[in-house]
Amino acid sequence: MGRGFIGLRVVAFESRMAEPMATLIARYGGRPINAPSLREVPLSENHEALAFAERLLQGAFGVVILLTGVGTRTLVEAVATRYPRQAFLDALASVTLVARGPKPVAALQQLGIRQLVVVPEPNTWREVLSTLDREVPVRGKRVAVQEYGVPNWELVRGLEERGAEVTRVPVYRWALPDDASPLRAAVKMVAEGQVDVLLFTNAAQVESVLRVAGEEGIEEAFRSALDGAVVASIGPTCSEALKEQGIAVDLEPSHPKMAQLVKETAERSGELLRVKRGTGDAAVQVGTVDRATPPGAASSGQRDGAMQSSMFMKACRREPTAHTPVWIMRQAGRYMPEYRKVRRKVSLLQLCKTPELAAEVTVTAATRLGVDAAIIFSDLLLLVEAMGVEVVFTKEEGPAIRQPIRGAGDVERLEPRDPEEALGYVLEAIRLTRSSLPAGMPLIGFVGAPFTLASYLVEGGSSRTFQRTKMMMYRHPGTWHALMERLATAAARYLNAQIAAGVQVVQLFDSWVGCLSPSDYRRYVLPHVQRLVSGVTLGVPLIHSGVDTGSLLELMRQAGGQVIGLDWRVELDQAWARLPGVGVQGNLDPLVLFAEPPVIREQVKRILDQAGGRPGHIFNLGHGILPRTPVEHAIELVRAVHELSRRSSHAAV
Question: Mapping DSSP to helix (H, G, I), strand (E, B) and coil, where does residue 90 land?
Fold first, then answer.
């Protein structure tokens, strides 16, 4: 890593900063293709801006939110056509001004206004809301929002939910550049497969690019070509615009800055292209030139033909299989004598933090059971411990958080650290496990989903009611979203580190999210899981699993994942019918394994019959295996799945 673009062809759709962008791309070894995609057109008859100015001069507003520097200056110029400039500036200075980042701050300072509230990085609508929650409660206030190009409905809804009366103030609209020929040429190059990386720095660029592709009659070819190119987005708002258009985002930088976007894309483009293009060890095809590929996230096992043709990997891709693959959640656990023998010598944390032992119990469980995939032995809460939280594991009460999250200040103390530094013992366990497993057996990595991790942090441990968690969601949504965003970012980085260390598949465990209603999931969880999933290395299947989530399945599919986990409370065939375009995992009741082998086989057959031989089914329990489960019954489960599904393997539809 760190070798840069190594000659890749990189198209950038930036307009105002086109030349600096091209310089950055070249500095990191890329071949820049400048394709300015936007022109800001001031609204010549801006009735909304003038109406806003009149009401501001009358003292009608308590808060004004300025989202862009250009928009701030354009607003002042538009108002100055009707009202005295200084009177308008004095009126602005008399209310609480909230500036979204450094550009509106600079614009206001140039206008002589210095008293304002500054929104910190990464300057998304979520930071705007969390800043208001901390510093400027808006309940009962009239709030004006200066818009740029298109409305930010998430911000508007968030303000209204907090009891504000919102006035939108558009100041300009977007149009294609006066000279759109560079953009048209770049779009054609993409459609012809002559571009390796696309850099989007503004949500409005997405519409312009697709508009040009449509006008040229090559939109289908353009979209198809993205399967073999890296699509990088500067931040969440831009990523959401891409996803709304059905374009997958391969990379989003750790900070929404142009320099950071170019740097991190340069570092990871080689690995991403190798996965997307399936080019193996030798090279990444760069236009018409072969270039050496820097080492990256794809493991040797992932590149191996035997690995990709395994039943498990085929099922993740919804391809036909000779039999239904099966593994068991918590398959390395207390029900297994070999595991108990290791645990008599060390605590759970010691086991997790000793790579040789973690690898041993992982491999032992997978090989003894005869499953189709192994899952690395670890714990969900290691990630929050790595962020500076003290976690204590007790035999009687389970995990406990010594200093639970109670407010915005507690969220700020969560330290985002490099996974290689903070969780290196897990990554080393993955490397050891990968070298010990059969060549064609996939290894699964995992992480706790943001809601589940947040609930542990807020409750201080396990909970039945999730009262503190929901009270934070409802009473302090800014703090809640800040916590979820921080956890989502850390989780995505952790999964990518696991992929780089050698896992072939990752699973997102949302163990407690079933306590939420669909509307609460949509509002408080969905955007954060979408951001997490979009940040995971493309080409590596992701299993999205929850418990008691029968009412949330469509939303979980919307959040992301190639496979959706089902618990035993739903009928597999009915649930799968609600989940077009994805595979499913599950969903035997763990307590069935306490029954006699004939009953186990009967229940296995029932679920296989519901799956109907359709490609994309991974057999599993509906939750983790229970501690006193007879090992022989778990082995019988695996044997039954293989035997019964093999006999009906030609029934796929």
Answer: helix
